[in-house]
């Protein structure tokens, strides 16, 4: 450990990145820049289409906008710093900057889990209680559900972040990660006993905010499946279930990447595998969400086409290929 001291003299954290890939910084920069651009473009398209197209002004797509905004913020907390590391070897991050990044990363991660619960609840109301759906899922209720997910999720990690910031670190502490992940920063602290407690506390909270939302989503879809099975016509069952498939794929992708990240916490797993699994978790869902909702959702797909045609038709005549 590096010159253990009080936090008052802790100036910087040094992000090691991928220890085994130090000779591949430029390829890593190109790959992650491509991923980041795809995430930004895909989610901005979703946001724009839902806002512009009045046919998508429904609770389901209001929550989808929240998910897209979240994905942009979530990746922006980590990828720009990673790009600077790979391109310019800018591996140092200030003490306050590190903990702001850590809080944002974990807070937004919990927000995604809670938003997926809210979206599952919306599908439950739409399929299990269709006659009361319009009266129940009003604009006010939608805003309250989304706001609750954001506020609760951003409050949950705050106490742990504060406690972790009180640990002793070196003046320049080496963090074996591409960003300030809680576990990686705790492992870089000077006091092993305090670090062990913070590791246990952080892991316990992480498991709780993963298992509880997943359980709520599972219960919602168990009720949905029961309701769908009661529908007499085969076409009706298929139509009802088709409104859930995109969300189910997103849930599966999110929790699969979490499971991979948690599995890498084992002591016998190489550092690079642990770092990569966390990076995949931070990128995979935001990257796939726009693709899943565009390809699997007919309404979004049609809205994207309508928006593109609208933009083409609104171009000045000299630029309009069909003019």
UniProtKB/TrEMBL annotation:
One Gene Ontology term of the molecular function aspect: olfactory receptor activity
Keyword terms: Cell membrane, Disulfide bond, G-protein coupled receptor, Glycoprotein, Membrane, Olfaction, Receptor, Sensory transduction, Transducer, Transmembrane, Transmembrane helix
One Pfam family here: 7tm_4
Membrane-spanning parts: 28-52, 64-88, 100-121, 141-162, 201-228, 240-263, 275-295
Domain of life according to the entry: Eukaryota
Membrane topology term: Multi-pass membrane protein
InterPro entries reported in the protein's UniProt record: GPCR_Rhodpsn (IPR000276), GPCR_Rhodpsn_7TM (IPR017452), Olfact_rcpt (IPR000725), Olfactory_GPCR1 (IPR050939)
Record domain G-protein coupled receptors family 1 profile: where: 42-293
Cellular localisation: Cell membrane
GO cellular component: plasma membrane
Descriptive protein name: G-protein coupled receptors family 1 profile domain-containing protein
Species this protein is from: Apteryx owenii (Little spotted kiwi)
């Amino acid at each position: 450990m590096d010159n253990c001291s009080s936090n008052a003299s802790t100036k910087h954290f040094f992000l090691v990145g991928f220890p085994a890939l130090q000779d591949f910084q430029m390829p890593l920069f190109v790959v992650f820049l491509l991923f980041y651009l795809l995430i930004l473009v895909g989610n901005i398209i979703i946001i724009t289409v839902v806002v512009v197209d009045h046919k998508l002004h429904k609770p389901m797509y209001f929550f989808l906008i929240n998910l897209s905004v979240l994905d942009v913020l979530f990746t922006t907390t980590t990828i720009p710093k990673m790009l600077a590391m790979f391109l310019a070897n800018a591996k140092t991050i200030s003490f306050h900057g590190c903990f702001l990044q850590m809080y944002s990363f974990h807070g937004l991660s919990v927000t995604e889990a809670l938003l997926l619960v809210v979206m599952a609840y919306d599908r439950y109301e739409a399929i299990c209680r269709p006659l009361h759906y319009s009266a129940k899922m009003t604009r006010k209720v939608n805003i309250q559900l989304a706001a609750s997910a954001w506020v609760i999720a951003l409050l949950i990690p705050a106490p742990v972040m504060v406690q972790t910031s009180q640990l002793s670190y070196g003046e320049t502490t080496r963090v074996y990660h591409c960003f300030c992940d809680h576990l990686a920063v705790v492992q870089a602290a000077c006091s092993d006993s305090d670090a062990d407690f913070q590791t246990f506390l952080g892991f316990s909270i992480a498991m709780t905010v993963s298992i509880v939302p997943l359980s709520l989503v599972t219960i919602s879809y168990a009720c949905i499946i029961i309701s769908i099975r009661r529908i007499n016509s085969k076409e009706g069952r298929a139509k009802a279930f088709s409104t859930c498939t995109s969300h189910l794929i997103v849930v599966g992708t999110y929790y699969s990447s979490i499971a991979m990240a948690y599995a890498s916490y084992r002591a016998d797993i190489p550092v690079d595998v642990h770092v990569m699994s966390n990076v995949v978790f931070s990128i995979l869902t935001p990257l796939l969400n726009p693709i899943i909702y565009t390809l699997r959702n007919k309404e979004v797909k049609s809205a994207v086409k309508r928006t593109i045609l609208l933009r083409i038709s609104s171009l000045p005549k000299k630029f309009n290929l069909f003019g």
